[in-house]
Amino acid sequence: MARIDYDEDESIDDSETPQWRRRLVTWALAAIGLGLGFLIPYTLYLNHEVGERFGQLRWQIPTRVYARPLELAPGLTLDATTLKTELDAAAYHAGDGIRPGTYVRNGGRWLISSRGFNDVDGAVPARRIEVSLSGSRVAAVRDGATKKALKIARLDPARIATLYGQKQEERRLVRLAEVPELLVTGLQAVEDRDFNSHYGIDLSGMIRAAFKTATGRTQGASTLTQQLARSGLLGIGRERTLSRKGKEILYALLIEARYDKGTILEAYLNQVYLGQRGSQAIHGVAAGAEFWFGRDLADLSTEQVALLIGIVRGPSYYDPRRNPERALERRNFVLGEMHETKLIDDAEYQRALKAPLGVTKDPGSTAANRFPAYVDLIRRQLARDYPADALAGAGLSVMSGMSPAAQALAEGAVSRTLKSLDSKRRPPLQTGLVVTDVHNGEVVAVVGSRSVAEHGFNRAVEAQRPVGSLLKPFVYLLALAQPGKYSLASWVDDSPVTVKLGNRKKDWNPGNSDGRSHGTVRLIDALAMSYNQATVRVGMQVDPERIAGLIKTLAGIEAEPNPALILGAVDQSPYAMAQLYQFLASGGEIQPLHAVRGVLDANGKALNRYDKEPAPAQDGDAIAARLITIALQQAVSNGTGTQLVRDGLGRLSPAGKTGTSNDGRDSWFAGWTGDHLAVIWVGNDQNKETGLYGATGAMRVWSAIFSRLPTAPLEVGNKGIDWQWTIGSNTTDADCPGARRFAYVAGFAPPYAPCPQPEPVEEEGGGWREWFGFGRDNDEQPREEAPQQENQP
Prior knowledge:
Layout: H1 2-15, H2 19-56, E1 63-66, E2 70-72, H3 80-89, E3 93-94, E4 102-106, E5 109-113, E6 117-119, E7 122-124, E8 128-134, E9 137-143, E10 153-155, E11 159-163, E12 169-171, H4 181-191, H5 203-214, H6 224-230, H7 242-258, H8 261-271, E13 273-277, E14 280-283, H9 285-293, H10 302-311, H11 324-340, H12 346-354, H13 372-382, H14 388-391, E15 397-400, H15 404-421, E16 430-437, E17 443-447, E18 465-466, H16 472-480, E19 491-494, E20 499-501, E21 506-508, E22 519-522, H17 523-528, H18 532-542, H19 544-555, E23 571-572, H20 574-585, E24 596-600, E25 606-609, H21 619-637, H22 643-646, E26 655-660, E27 666-672, E28 676-683, H23 698-706, E29 721-727, E30 730-731, E31 740-745, H24 767-771
Parallel strand pairs: 1-15, 3-4, 12-14
Antiparallel strand pairs: 1-11, 2-10, 4-5, 5-8, 6-7, 8-9, 13-14, 15-24, 16-17, 16-28, 18-23, 19-22, 20-21, 24-25, 26-27, 27-28, 29-30, 29-31
Helix pairs in contact: 2-7, 4-10, 6-7, 6-8, 10-11, 11-12, 15-23, 16-18, 16-21
């Protein structure tokens, strides 16, 4: 009975259990089950995301473009101004010459501490280099440590552009060991003092932040790991919501669980957002150092390190260029934290407080591409081997042939010269130019617009304009390739000429630009003075078909082989004409022009090289190129380019050819020295008359460049050349009155004849005066008469 009563009691107690408690337990268990069912897969998903994003970090690096490394060797033409321009472009700065990236100058002696870098032929180690300049030349190059003479030394190149993908981001990865210790420890002192001990979140800091938020104040409580989580790396965003904060905490915990502190800190230093230039975001401390200070990360001073750390809190709010007062206050706060945590001593703290912010006026080399014409040429050349998407985010290094000094001089020359040519009577002028190295075909400078930083239409490559007389040297080149028929001393007829066109129903009667005929003249004079009538006669003998074939072979130029081609009736760009003239400037070598020297992968290994040595010139090509060069040196000394001599450039013995299209719409000049070739076009985009000739427009730009560009004089070798004094159609003695010295192909000089005796002067009282040279200027030469019996070509 009692047993039954016990059972009844138990049943009664169970029935009296409150229903809400049973439901609460049920709901709690269900919520836990659902929560775990959602949270576990979600956490696994986030864990996968963390691993994937960290793995992709290295592939988010954009492709960077570098200038050519400056090679220093004894005998190199180089002055102090140009050397400093090159050093500035590569972010070197005055210092002790011991720390990498610094230099010190003492008169003509420079001590430069280079940084190591990878070039197309392998790694180039950092070293101290002592360079001595004398008379605008490198007198000696020595190892700065051992004082041992060096045959050659290379300085790390300037970064000139960045090729982006869809994201406009600049990032330059660094290893943790490459980051200055003060930056690493200072960042932790300011942003996260417990970084080395927490597990991704700071609970005490979060509680303090929550309390201050509840009382109407705000305080950040994010660890460096949380900051990394909400950065662009994981794409959480910066909105202040509970869901965002929860996601951030989960990410931070997962990051800490998967990676060690060093890996996390390295990722943070490479990811942290530090500024903006237009649509281009600056990420990472290395990119930030260049953007704000124009320096390599290792070269930052204490106060610059403090400012960089201070900017982390708000790159826009603490922008030192726009808000210097705020930036200074923030920097000094960071310096105080460094001092408090014993990272810097009292003396350094006081010194740094008094120092200026130290930011550059303009962004450093991380700025958006400011050499659009040159980079456009690079993109065109890379397109043959690399699709555009292959360059985006691949972390490649494009090693170009740009000379920062040559580029700067070309840009300055364009700006100054076109401004001086502007006139109310003249339409707006534009220009395109290309400067090359005559030794290897590297393009060292490109300007595609008078507004040199303007993106868009690249006139150096895309402008197709009539080249006019720029084509004449190649007409004469073909003639001189027949040494049994033509020489520089050959007589040619510059009288009016008529050419039958097409089916001979139409006549072509080209005239000279001066409206005059000049009778029978030497071939070298016809070219130097750019006589149209004489050139047409020679061209018709040579055959327009051969002219068209030659320019296609040398530069890939397609042209109709009609008679008008002889006088340059073909539209081409400055780049195409530079490729054509490279044959002459190189001494007869076939040198494909290239802006890209090579492409390196993310590890510095060469993927492709484009700087291959050109094949030596064939003997016949070399001799013909020398003869044309001699003729075009005369074009400068005594022909259409004599203004260059008046500009003081006779010291370079340059060769050059002017070109002008009909009605003065296009002004051209192609000229070269012992080191450089430059081809320049000046005109109007709407093809209006400018009133400029080749000598009054484009040649003035050329003169402005080469008046300052260190370059060697042009010396023409004598291999295969026989120099002979000539009078009439014969060689003669050097002291023969009226004789001229001409270069002939060896073995093809005309026969020797004694100097003809002067006829007696009949005028009474005048004979002895004429005999001793009185009655005319000492420099005046008697006019050379063509022999009447000679057959004219």
